[in-house]
């Protein structure tokens, strides 16, 4: 029995070491998307769930990874910080680094930005106001970039709670940000939490970008992510590109971690979306 115990302890220690090393790896995942009937051509880097994680001094390694992809623009899909007022220093350094590299960036808040309001509304408003001078925030707003129309959906904070019922009685995405209106542009919706994707489709996006689930934290071969931030086992759509009612839904497992530096079989990632023009033989 003692031999079994020691073997299990050794395996646990090895797993922890591997998991810690894995948090320092940063991979780049590429996705090709063609939207039928749309002629847009664009390259977008998606970054999510940094949680104040650092890759080199002033996040130099992360910024270089992003810059090397030569994106038209970057989408930061929430949870840059860990819900502390002092985290604004980290956020400003990161966004200033992107701006210094000449990279256009759009930022949509996640639940951890909104948690600042639990301290006080003044803290939340101070963060939103000050960070707005370092990056373009798109919270319940619409921006246009060439042939791309993008909306950032600021999901109500109570939707992130563990027990949620009757969402439809208080959440209406169309009331918050409105439907897409342009016929010839590619419609991109950024919504931090992928859990409620069924409630986003009424906006009629072509592509939805989400994060939040951290890839399920622990990845199990052939089964996917193990656990969600709501402590639910085997959540669906934790990492990758999915098709939801004909809409492409990208869920990134994100860059950082929350609480403890632990990911297993789940390298930190940034995602690159290459939106291509539809070829005549594909129509």
What features would you describe in this structure?
It is a single chain. The protein has 283 residues and is α/β, with parallel strands linked by helices. It has a single domain, classed as Purple Acid Phosphatase, chain A, domain 2. 24% of the residues lie in helices and 23% in strands. The protein has 7 helices and 14 strands. It has helices at residues 2-22, 60-68, 88-100, 111-114, 116-119, 121-131, 173-177; strands spanning 27-34, 42-47, 73-76, 105-107, 136-137, 141-145, 148-153, 186-191, 207-210, 219-220, 224-225, 240-244, 247-251, 269-276. The strands form 3 sheets. Strands 1-14-2-3-4-5 form a 6-stranded mixed beta sheet, with helices on one face. A 6-stranded mixed beta sheet has the order 6-7-8-9-13-12. It starts with a helix and ends in a 7-residue tail after the last strand.
Which labels suit this protein?
283 residues; alpha/beta; Purple Acid Phosphatase, chain A, domain 2; 23% strand; globular; disordered C terminus
* Named CATH architecture: 4-Layer Sandwich
The H-level CATH homologous superfamily, spelled out, is Metallo-dependent phosphatases
Count up the helices: 7
> Could you give the order of the helices and strands?
HEEHEHEHHHEEEHEEEEEEE
Tell me the strand percentage band: 15-25%
As laid out across the biggest beta sheet, the strand order is: 1-14-2-3-4-5
The share of residues in helices is 10-25%
What's the pLDDT, averaged over the residues? Answer: 86
Number of extended strands: 14
Are there runs of 5+ residues with pLDDT below 50, and where? Answer: 279-283
Shape: globular
Question: CATH topology, anyone?
Answer: Purple Acid Phosphatase, chain A, domain 2
Report the structural category. alpha/beta
Largest sheet: 6 strands, mixed
**Measured distance between first and last alpha carbons:** 65 Å
What is the count of distinct domains?
Answer: 1
Over the alpha carbons, how many angstroms does the gyration radius reach?
19 Å
CATH class: Alpha Beta
